[in-house]
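Q: Here's a chain of 213 amino acids. Please give me its 3D structure as tokens.
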Amino acid sequence: MGDFEIKAEFAVQDETALRALFPDTHELAVKKVLGALDPHACDFISRSPFLCLGTQDLDGRADVSPRGDHAGFVRILDRNTLAIPDRPGNNRLDSLSNIVANPGVGLLFIIPGYDDTLRVNGRATIVNDPELLETMSVNGRAPKIAIVVKVRETFLHCAKAFRRSHLWDPEHHQDRSEMPSLVKMILDQTTGAPDDENEMRKLDERLEDDYRT
């Protein structure tokens, strides 16, 4: 496969050129953007066990990180403030490092079975306030830090992407066994996976144990 090159004459370089390709924004799509959390947004967040966190460093390198826990794991502190607990992970700290450099964040809240989503944009601060962290304890373990987001805008997003992708439709779910395990793929990409199937199975089981604990 050769390297793909963008033809200069087809590169959209500014917003004026971009908007010329599309009809005007629907009035309701503009009006639906709120500057704070209303009761519907709060209800959506309280039901959501999963969100995607978008961040960017000062050089423009972007990152999107999944965050998940029990439904309602994101605390609503007031109409303009959210707190996201940071649970144990791989300690790469990509999102957290980006927030330290550039506090602008975007959140996408998802509820299993719902085709609609909720988008929240704002400015984030990493805090280690023991009193706040204790309110987000799970099984007696408080997170080390929380991401506190000051909401600048929030709005509900329509179901088109989820409908097109059939995300929740079991008939469209793919067979996970058609691809190697996560451990196998990462080892293939790094140090090399063991040839012995029993050894590989033990590594997979170890990851499942990590997930459980």
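Q: Can you summarize the key feature?
A: The first helix runs from residue 15 to 19.
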